[in-house]
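pasting for ref. prot 1 ->
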Amino acid sequence: MTKESVSVPGPASHTAAHAALLAPSGEDRLGLVIEAAPNAMIMVDASGHIVLVNSQAEKLFGYSRGELLGSTIEKLVPKKFRGGHDAMREGYSAHPETRAMGAGRDLFGLRKDGSEVPIEIGLNPLHMGGELFVLASIIDITERKRMEELSRMAEVEKLRKNILDNVPYSMIAIDLNGNVLTANPAAERLLGYTAREMLNRNVVELIHDPHEIAHRASELSMELGQKVPADFNVLTIKPRMGLSEEREWTYTRKDRTTVPVKLSVSTLTDHAGEITGYLKVAYDITESKRVEAYIRHMAHHDGLTGLPNRTLLLDRLDMAIRQARRSNRHVGVLMMDLDHFKRVNDSLGHQVGDQLLIAVAHRIRECLREVDTVARLGGDEFVVLATDVRDRAEMDGLIRKIVEKISAPILINHQELLVTPSIGGSLFPDDGTDVHTLIKNADMAMYFVKGHGRSSMQWFLPTMLEATEEKLALTTALRFALERNEFEVHYQPEVSLGNGRVIGMEALIRWRHPRYGDIMPDRFIALAEETGLILQIGEWVLETACEQCVRLQKKIGRPLVMAVNVSPRQFQQKDWLDVIARVLKKSGLQPSCLALEITEGLLMRSPEESAEMLAQIRNLGVSIVIDDFGTGYSSLSYITRFPIDKIKIDRSFVRDLATDAADAAIIIAVIAMARSLQIGVIAEGVETEEQLSYLRSRDCDEAQGFYYSKAVSAAELPAVIERLDRRKPLASQPG
């Protein structure tokens, strides 16, 4: 190594230190070693000045040897890594044992042209002539970084492909013109095309119905207030505006069959953020549409017979009345039930009774025209709606046909059954000009028949408007029942299916009249509602139930929830919130221990007002339960509009769930819906272990019914709770 190669221009203070370095005995050997090294080598003194470099260092940093010698090491370090001259000197000389500064961190060197190069540094201390030097070995790791990035990108691509190949959703990438760029296996399975078959084909022509595209274009034009062309833009205009959302669409498969899907379209962008295409993500909603359609059907039809229920009947009757007004024709309403049907249930069982109802429904339907309707209101009660009728004489012919059909022997389980109907009729406009009047008057005529020997037919007469002796007597007795202490509240336990413990109970009113004996709620609640007495009775039930719940909690030593039914009149009562607050304060019951049970139909009478009322109830800390869920509206959309804590599946679905696939499907759908909305689910009418086991396997939260206990008095309730709490959960029972 020559003198020029190691000369250090700079202050005279460095001369002594450099003299030791340049001693002939070690100079050539060190220079040769450094120059022969495959890596850039730089030696600095204790002050941080460069005293020795090799040609690899010149090549790496772009400086000549003369430009480097004598300068500080900071010259080769980007500003973001500099800590000042003193810090540099301390870093290199005060801690020379740090030999691998590049380990575990990203370091960069600064070239002469201002560019940065990723490097890895190894440091070695050298003692020469009583001076301390640090020899830095510097490796350019640009290629390593590039390979690492390529490897990382390959892993990312592999992961992306693995995700796309295994995700259950159809994913189709398209360019700005709508041509397919790629499709994943789920798209192939959904559509029946291979990815190769879809490649470069226009997505609209491939899987979309042009009529649906045109229809959606018209919808979007209205929604956005601007003309949307009926082409590919209808799929992408919203994502392009940052308004991506899920919508229902119809895909056309390769075999030209169609499949309903939920579709969302999002934009694909390049590194500059420019839109380069779109990603269409879709999934098959055939099953959910089927379940939703079934639930919607069940909202308007009877679960046993498949006939329209009260909701659909009233809607059709209202429509028939409007048409009859325009055509100056009549509408006939026939209310009928089966004489002594209860005897069939009691003697042969409910299963035979149900088959009998199905057979009767079928026979009535056979007697009607396509424009007519037969509905089942519940139990053995049927209603026939005959539209576009000339007069009663025409209706009489239909009535004779129905009576003849129903009265013929019905064979069930190799056993002949004979039943007869009691029928009451009303005619629009003679006997009423609105839906409810016609139904009420036909019902009144039917009860007249039942009270006068049954098995016949009677048209409504104005004299029937006078209250019957039974109804008048019941109304009079009802007015004095509260002050005479004839009412009692019984309680049916509600049990957690998770641990088998009683968590609450439903309050059920009972009326024990000294003359008429036990009068069931279905006989007097409607009468109380009609007369307005339900407000006093309802408040008494609420107050009694809350007070007894407090006493019960103290007795058993844990909180329980008291569920109390709410009538339409109570729900519409202006000071009802004040009544609830007053009862809670007086009884001392915590609001969280009170649940109010409200029917679906009650909420839907005035949805906006109902939602506001429920919100105010929730503000009190009281929970809301939808009672008899599935027998009214049962829409997947309406329930999200109200603040609801729990839904109670009606007993009609629980009864045959083990044998009726339709009931089971409804229960599964209801529980799934409740889970997604974080709403609790309780099933009422549980009578068998088989029903209970099925509900538990479907993650139903709670159950109520004769399997656990009938409704009992407050005095009996503690013993019932203790018995149920000691009982082992079903899952742990043998067999």
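and prot 2 ->
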Amino acid sequence: MSTTPATATHRTAGFTEVGLADLRLVGGKGANLGELTHAGFPVPPGFVVTADAFLEALTAAGLRDHLRALADDTDVDNAAAVDAAATDASTRLHGMPLSDELRRDVFAALDTLDLDAGVAVRSSATVEDTAGASFAGMNRTFTNLHTRDDVLAAIVDCWASMYAPRVLAYRRSRGVTAEPAIAVIVQQMVASECAGVMFTVDPASGDRDRLVIEAARGLGELVVSGRVEPDTYVVARSTGAIVLHRPGSQAEKLVRGVDGKDALVALTDAERQHRPLDEAAVGELTRIGEQVEAHYGTPQDIEWAYAGGKLWLLQSRPITTIPTDVPTEGTLLVSGLGAAPGRASGRVHIAQSVDDGRALQDGDVLVAPFTSPDWVPIMRRAAALVTDSGGMTCHAAIVSRELGVPCIVGTRTATTALRDDEMVTVDGTEGTVTAGVEHPQGETPTVRVVESSPAGGPSTPTTATRLYVNLAIAEQAETVAAMPVDGVGLLRAEFLIANALDGVHPAALVARGQRSELIDRLATGVGRIAHAFAPRPVVYRAMDFKTNEFRALEGGTDFEPDERNPMIGYRGCYRYVREPDLFGIELEMLARVRDTSPNVHLMIPFVRTTWELERCIGLLDTSPLGDDRTLLRWIMAEVPSVTFRIPEYAAMGIDGVSIGSNDLTQLILGVDRDSESCAELFDERDAAVLDAIRQIITACHAANITSSLCGQAPSNYPEFTELLVRWGITSISVNPDAVDVARRTIAAAEQRVILESARQTASPAPT
């Protein structure tokens, strides 16, 4: 192992002049690139702008003490303080003049490279890529730079990245107390046809006989950043055989564009049809990976690229997180409430926030503390979902059931007990997460193995009680519309919004002058669902903002109060009265959709009092929908007060009532429906809840308006469905996965009611 000291100027040093002994001067990346170069591995040429150059520049500008204090004293648990520190550091560094000596040394080193072919500029922190702290992906990287000025600007950007919020937090979490210092790598670009990463042991299991290679077309930045799902190859080192190939999903590749800059281009048909790596390339990578590991004496995480058929190594670092206590396949890891049925296997991706979740690859198992509407786009890519908190009717449970994604909620410890990248199997029926991939004997494991009951089926019975479906995802409209259902009883606007607007708060879009775009996007989603189900009715429930869920959307903190009890807080009908502009956007959108799809109708959620409903109807009457006499106006029955007000609501022009049994149960029993601690208390079959539901259905009959129920109970309990039929409910709305069972349960219940009525009629009167 080389210990060659640097012999160049203290500001720059070529790869041939540095090694592992120079970590303090050239950082982890620089030291490892020098080490690989000395060992004779194929490394593209380059040089390092040293940490001494960085500190010299700070000293000359009078910033050194100030920036060190920022790194040492900023409260990393205070997001506002961290952001302020990062902004302060960036402003000062970008305003700092660069000395003539630094410019001279950098330009001289650049003369040894081919700027026309492009160079890459990458950060190399002095505690980075070591066995104790990887700092993986935390500092900046720039590719395909072609001018001296661009290189200098990128160097300063790398310096500033040393004070980014995530770096400040990571330093503190890893106990790094050294003065922040950063070197910068300037390296010849490799115009790779294929690139990726290689782990010389399986980082998920710690299995030292399994070498893992991830590969994608084009530059490797897409793999490292998680923007594509790469092909994955698992090699048995003992035999050299490829024991698993998992095809990835890649539509575009990153290349050098005609202007010399990075450009995304679509893959050709030929590229789509062939693997990024053939067996020979996998074999070559395996051999060189083993050689690099042998050189360092420890398992390595290696970045590589193929250009013109030649293999290049772009980086190597120790793997910092190898499991030492690996559970055997089938070992129970965590358990909770089975919230959405089915089984799925995949790699764990732990996400503490939506930002973390965006790196999730298709087929991963998403593990999170909880989810809210802004998680919907991420949840759609997951093989399964596991959360720390939540009950059977929380957001994660509801959306997972609709998506057909196995889900477990209320585990309490999933985000700490599970590990990123370990392979697990999620059983959403039993509520268990076990180690390993379960698959039929003799078959190759796949990323996703899902088992669920099909909806629909032969000889679907006809029923007098209408069967509707709950829906929130526009992309599922055509599939669900093909099921034997009579329409959509609950189209959840808030989930549709989060999915359609990429996690931006609707009020934030309006504030940015994008009101028309907001209406267009909503109309597209609602219109797609309406068209798929036409002429069957689609009941659109207006946005039921809960402040805790919508604060998490981009811009949400500017519009959402911080409430202690958001479930019974600022939401539903009352919010429309207080914020008529946002409600007006929905009404305008519905008017547009109804121009071509008059099967869409409106439902107002969380109605508490007659006066707020009266004002809300007033807003509707003065909207573009006000003169539309064919529009049906529904309300949700979620608040117990509705039980006593149905005659008044009917007199105000309400056409139908949909019972939201989830909220109704929590308010009658006083149980937070999202609480895993009180989950056993939450029961829609409780006698008090059933009595309230019966009273609502009876009152709707008396007022000559329709009644429906769109809670979770009919999807879970056939006996609950039979009670609704006996009480004479007009319709029942269930999740797509429960359509077949619900239809048959309704038919059987109707037949029993008819038979019982016939027997009573035929029986002689008592004497």
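The CA atoms of residues 342 and 452 lie 5 Å apart.
The mean pLDDT is 84.
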